[in-house]
Specification:
Helix content: 25-40%
Number of helices: 18
CATH architecture of one domain: 2-Layer Sandwich
Bound molecules: coenzyme A, adenosine monophosphate
Strand content: 15-25%
Structural class: alpha/beta
CATH superfamily of one domain: ANL, C-terminal domain
Shape: globular
Length: about 625
């Protein structure tokens, strides 16, 4: 009942509700207007409020007695490096690095791109930008140079921050050539590059505008937090959309801070001083919100883990970290649990560790299959909570709000709307549907604080991509239904976005790459079910007349092209040659139908299909290549 009451209040009186929540963070000046609209008619929270996110995350805690508490535990099994950083140490390093950035000419509103592995310096970089009121944009280290170049071109940063290398299991990934290639490709030129040298891979700096991180840090003078407007951007995070051009999701300062603090209390039920661990990467939204900002704003200790669930060194890696750092609440993607289950089906390695400190496990980032949820429940004997959100929302939209009340867990469901989110299942006319009817998942406007107010320098694209299809609603890109008890079930994306090992990727992006192969006349890339990674992409390719290339050679070449242009994380490994693709009479390729054929799911082919027999051909081609279930 507590949840129902709080939820109702948040929907009936959003301004009153979020005014109350805003009081929980230390503003320099409290907002004058809780909810308003900007010059593009888009909702904005906390206009007139002044604050600084790095102050909230660091200085405030030092001033209030948390200076000696550990802020970040850095745990890197891949480099055998382990470090505890207190709030005071982190504040001092961030202030100093902000000084270094300022010396390079970075001022409020300037953009800084961060392309770094999971080292504490990445959090220092983000918080230093926040301290100056500069806008950071972290690019996931698994993206290839072209993807980095696209983001540099769009964000137009003054400075690029990077490191000499990342580590994937035992493989060292040098960054310099990636950076050089991206900078050469981008038409926008950065003023400076700063490189953090890792001890196992020092890289010579070759240009006058390239700087050594530590040297710059030594020479800098610390700076104080710059008061910024609540509506000023804190960061841009690019995410895959339905075209090859990533979308620059903007996060503001005020709404973000209020929403994240609220989520730590109500969704994750974690208290200041407790240890929170999100095993993700700072390159994703989970890393932004729940490795860096939310735990620090809430005065928790966060774990920054440079390792994997398996083979670092074994499938007991997570249990080791939980025991060693006394993790209270843990968050990861279902793929991680599937990977552990594959290597240690009985979960036997857990017995080596005492993980009684762990109260709750949260899973998100992709659909959580019932078998994985139940395996985790049985193994851990604690609440395992599937919750649903996305880069755009920045924090959970559907969850079991364990800090308000732990509701019964229904496997397969991400539970109920979090206070502030009026989630509805919609038909094509924007009408809310009743229980057990499948439709598009929308959130009634206004979205609560913390969600994207717009796309970077593209308000019209924001309106067109998210607000136009279902008037009055924000369209999430997902499909789903709810049951009689109001529990929601997310069934998957209904656009061209796929989720591979919890990584969000665009099949349209991959199609652009595949289509560029000289032998390819046309193609479709679809995401099909995969036991470990949830989904993997496969290509269906029609050859140009007269093209002579073997199936194996084509597959190899296409896999290489996607790897080189998009990145290894795409996991594009399979392609099959087909005589033709199924299309409607107007020429629209029926990707969803092909996906259903591959997954062995029922489907209804539209009456406008050109020729039904092509579907049998596709089924046979997929069977032959063992790509269909
Ligand atoms: N930098 C460079 N390369 C990266 C990278 C990074 N940050 N992250 C992944 N890659 C590479 C991998 O090395 C791999 O390359 P390979 O084809 O040469 O082996 C490729 O991208 C695919 O990576 P991934 O899909 O992660 O597969 P994997 O076999 O390396 O690892 C798991 C499998 C299950 C262990 C891993 O996907 C995992 O830990 N998943 C958890 C999900 C998660 O944390 N998601 C974040 C969102 S919440
Ligand atoms: P990202 O923006 O990378 O966080 O990816 C967001 C997308 O991942 C969502 O739109 C969903 O398609 C999917 N997703 C995230 N969490 C869940 C979940 N708990 N259940 C089902 N799908 C999810």
């Amino acid at each position: 009942m507590r949840y129902e009451n709080i939820y109702r209040k948040s929907i009936e009186n959003p301004t009153g509700f979020w005014e109350e929540q805003a009081k929980s963070i230390p503003w320099f000046s409290f907002p004058k207007k809780i909810l308003s609209k900007d010059e593009n008619g888009l909702y904005r929270w906390y206009n007139g409020g002044k604050l600084n996110t790095s102050y909230l995350a660091l200085d405030y805690h030092v001033e209030n007695g948390r200076g000696d508490q550990t802020a970040i535990i850095y745990d890197s099994p891949v480099t055998q490096t382990f470090r505890h950083i207190t709030y005071r140490e982190l504040r001092d390093e961030v202030a100093q690095f902000a000084g270094a950035l300022r010396q390079l000419g970075v001022e409020q509103g300037d953009r800084v791109i961060i392309y770094m592995p999971m080292v504490p310096q990445v959090a220092v970089a983000m918080l230093a930008c926040a301290r100056l009121g500069a806008v950071h944009s972290v690019v996931f280290g698994g993206f290839a140079p072209h993807e980095l170049a696209l983001r540099i071109e769009d964000a137009k940063p003054k400075v690029l921050l990077t490191a000499s290398a990342g580590v994937e299991f035992t493989k060292i990934i040098p960054y310099k050539s990636i950076i050089d290639e991206a900078l050469a490709e981008s038409t926008h030129k950065v003023d400076h590059v700063v490189m953090y040298q890792r001890w196992f891979k020092r890289t010579p700096l070759t240009r006058t505008n390239e700087h050594d991180w530590d040297e710059l840090l030594r020479k800098a003078t610390p700076v104080d937090p710059v008061p910024v407007d609540a509506t000023d951007p804190l960061y841009i995070l690019y995410t895959s959309g339905t075209t090859g051009k990533p979308k620059g999701i903007v996060r503001d300062n005020g709404g973000h801070a209020v929403a994240l603090r609220y989520s730590m209390e109500t969704v994750y039920n974690v208290k200041p001083g407790e240890v929170f661990w999100a095993a993700s990467d700072v390159g994703w939204v989970v890393g932004h919100s729940y490795i860096v900002y939310a735990p620090l704003i809430s005065g928790c200790t966060t774990v920054l883990y440079e390792g994997k669930p398996v083979r670092t060194p074994d499938a007991g890696a997570f249990w080791r970290v939980i025991e060693e750092h006394k993790v209270n609440v843990f968050f990861t993607a279902p793929t991680a649990f599937r990977a552990i289950k594959k290597e240690d089906p009985e979960g036997a390695l857990k017995a080596k560790y005492d993980i009684s400190c762990l109260r709750q496990l949260f899973l998100a980032g992709e659909r959580c299959d019932v078998a994985t949820l139940e395996w985790a429940q049985q193994l851990l004997q604690i609440p395992v909570i599937d919750h649903w959100w996305q880069t755009e929302s920045g924090w959970p939209m559907l969850a079991n709000p364990t800090g308000i009340e732990l509701m019964p867990v229904k496997p397969g469901s991400a539970s109920k709307p979090v206070p502030g989110f009026q989630v509805e299942i919609l038909d094509s006319e924007s009408n809310p549907l009743g229980p057990n009817q499948e439709g598009a998942v929308g959130v009634r406007l206004p979205l609560p604080p913390g969600c994207l107010p717009t796309l970077w320098e593209q308000p019209e694209r924001y309106i067109q991509s998210y607000l136009s299809a279902y008037p009055g609603y924000y369209f999430t890109g997902d499909g789903g239904y709810k049951d009689e008890d109001g529990y929601f079930y997310i069934t998957g994306r209904i656009d061209d976005v796929i989720n591979v090992a919890g990584h969000r990727l665009s099949t349209a992006d991959m199609e652009e790459i595949v289509a560029a192969h000289p032998a390819v006349a046309e193609c479709a890339v679809i995401g099909v079910e995969d036991q470990l990674k949830g989904q993997v992409p496969i290509g269906l390719v029609v050859l140009k007349a007269g093209a002579s290339i073997s199936q194996d050679m084509l597959e190899k070449e296409l896999a290489n092209m996607v790897r080189e242009r998009l990145g290894a994380i795409a996991c594009f490994k399979s392609a099959t040659i087909v005589a033709r693709l199924p299309k409607t009479r107007s020429g629209k390729i029926l990707r969803r139908v092909m996906r259903a054929i591959a997954d062995g799911k029922p489907y209804t082919a539209p009456s406008t299909i050109e020729d039904m027999s092509v579907l049998d051909e596709i089924g046979e081609a997929l069977q032959e290549k063992k790509l269909a279930h």
